[in-house]
Amino acid sequence: MTAGTWVAALDGGGTKTAVALADRRGEVLRRPSGAGCNPQDGSGWDGVLRTAVTDALDAPGGLAAMMLGLPGHGEVPAHDAATLALLRDLLPVPFEPVNDVALAHLGAFGGGFGVLVLSGTGSMAWARGPAGEVRVGGWGDLLGDEGSAHAIGRAALTAAARALDGRLPQARPFADALLPGLGSEATGPFAPLTWLMAQEAGPRPALAGVARQVDALAQQGDETAAAILEEAGDDLAWAARTAAQRAGLPGPSPWVPAGGVFQSRAVLAAVTDRLGPPSDPQLSVLGGGLLRAARLAGWNPDAAWAARIETALR
């Protein structure tokens, strides 16, 4: 058993990094959220990760162990090596870095069989079954991420651009409703491009942010918006079915949704129509991470401890 009052879990993503700590009694501390920490998005990721880890280490009483779900982990060897070097330099306690979707699956199924369908800035399906653990998707915005917030935003601006130049006249009402809501930069004959080039955070998070407006327009009855979300649901279900098959599962159920895109009732309904009703996760991402961190620390946490931290995290 390692010394220290707290264990920590980090849930990193493309646009946000969240950290929580828990002690042996099941009391929880939430730390301030930071920006995304994906090395594939360019510079600055290491500063976000360093700040998050250092903040956890500064908790009164010290840290006993840390579990980290990191975006893109296991995909690019050079990025993994840089991340591991940083963590080894910072953390004098047991720690375990995994892909952020693997951490979400751990929380959702408690290490059991099932399919985790993630759709946030990016997208991926992660399945565990008799044939092992597999992932489908998660290729990034240039090669994939179908069904993600980025993909929804990109499809929306593409439809708007085609409506403006006459190739998709039926989407003109959609463009006229979408573009004013983007801000003052979305004006003129090239409004989608003008707006995108003005986004200081870069195109990936900017496009992901458009997904919320698409969902709002779909709720108002816009047919183009509804079609974009229906396609996103189809893409996510496709990934889930493929992951289930490769993991040796008889079907894509049980499945659990994760990520901000599933706040859209239209996307959730589209995936449910194809896969069946989703299951409730056993634990949240941070809850699963804290449970694993407690085991790394040698605390032998029980179900009651896990329930207490999950309640505190809500």
Automatic annotation (TrEMBL):
In terms of superkingdom, the source organism counts as: Bacteria
Q: What sections of the protein cross the membrane? A: none
Q: Which residues form a coiled coil?
A: none
The ATPase BadF/BadG/BcrA/BcrD type domain covers: 11-275
Recorded hits in Pfam families, A to Z, give: BcrAD_BadFG
Among SUPFAM superfamilies, the record links this protein to: Actin-like ATPase domain (SSF53067)
Q: Which InterPro entries match?
A: ATPase_BadF, ATPase_NBD, Euk-type_GlcNAc_Kinase
What protein name applies here?
Answer: ATPase BadF/BadG/BcrA/BcrD type domain-containing protein
Q: Which organism is it from?
A: Rubellimicrobium roseum
- Taxonomic lineage from the root: Bacteria, Pseudomonadati, Pseudomonadota, Alphaproteobacteria, Rhodobacterales
